[in-house]
Amino acid sequence: MQRRLAAIVHADLAGFTRMMEGAETRTFRHLKSAQTDVWRPAIVAGGGRLVGTAGDAMLAEFGSAVGAVSAGIDIQERMARFNDGLDENQRMLFRIGIHLGEVIVDEEDQNIFGDGVNLAARIQAMAEPGGIAVSRAVRDVTELRIDYTFVDAGEHKLKNVSRPVHIYHVRSAEPAQQAGATVCLSSKTTTRILPQITLRFEGANSTGQKYSFDVALDKLMALPHGMVIGRSADQCELVIPHATVSRRHARLALKGDALQIEDLGSTNGTAVNGTLVVASAPVSLQTGSRLKVGDVELSIRQL
Questions:
Q1: In Gene Ontology terms, what is one molecular function of this protein (predicted)?
Q2: Which of 20, 112, 130, 234 could join 157 in a cystine, given CB atoms 3.0 to 4.6 angstroms apart?
């Protein structure tokens, strides 16, 4: 049994189940093209090796954290160009997680195992669709290209991991404007008075079970990357404990004086006023909007 230090890259396709249900053959074809035309050349160029694929998941190993992060950025940039040729509902948005740790190597087939691999998978679940999340161990030894930066996402309690893990997102140093129209919360809303507002989200699922939570906009303004809505209390600020809600389902954020919702590649989707929200394409909310998260439909009102 061989052990070695490695930078582990774990990736997963956001919304894969929903894409397969809608167009199984087409999704499979696009996934194989992405593996062949994007992932393999980017991994080789970064000095790594593709350990294996399983469904929509991919695992790669690098001898250098710098090489792993560079390959991750290369992959996401190549995937953006790959997606340009696809319709919006067909675009493939991978979450990438990177960790630096010790791995156990199976000498027969060169597969890798161990806590380092498990942590990379958990960190991947914290990444945004089309984004990259890394552990502190990776951030501490990696210098990014000048056009990218690490954004501190704080410590998180990850599933089946006993200790908190500090997460950083890799983002463009000058992020592009978010997609989607901007609609103010009301005609009288201004940035100056936003901190005085609390919004209540309340409603029920299809069987009548009730759910609600409140969002104070002063707290939302203090979180530049917003609040995550989902089933997992360990990974989300706003929790909806329902089976149709993904662990990390959607993100609520404030852009200027506009409230926006972004689907995070959920299994059962997010909708605003009956219109499905495409993953990583935020749309605006306002008081009176109907927000559907999985099977739970919520109305929004100002307290």
A1: adenylate cyclase activity
A2: 234
Residues forming CATH 2.60.200.20 domain(s) in the chain = 198-302
Judging by DSSP bridges, how do beta strands 227-230 and 238-239 pair with one another?
Answer: parallel
Instruction: Summarize pLDDT for 84-132 with one digit per residue, the tens.
Output: 888 887 889 999 999 999 999 888 888 889 888 999 999 998 888 899 9
Q: How far is CA 129 from CA 74, 91, 107, 169, 281, in A?
A: 15, 11, 33, 12, 10
Cα–Cα distance for residue pair 195/198, rounded to 1 Å: 8
What's the whole-model pTM score? 0.65
Q: Which residues of the chain are in CATH 3.30.70.1230 domains? A: 2-172
Which of these, 218, 98, 225, lies nearest to 154 by C-alpha position?
Answer: 225
Q: Rounded mean pLDDT of 226-232?
A: 91
Q: CATH top-level class for 198-302?
A: mainly beta
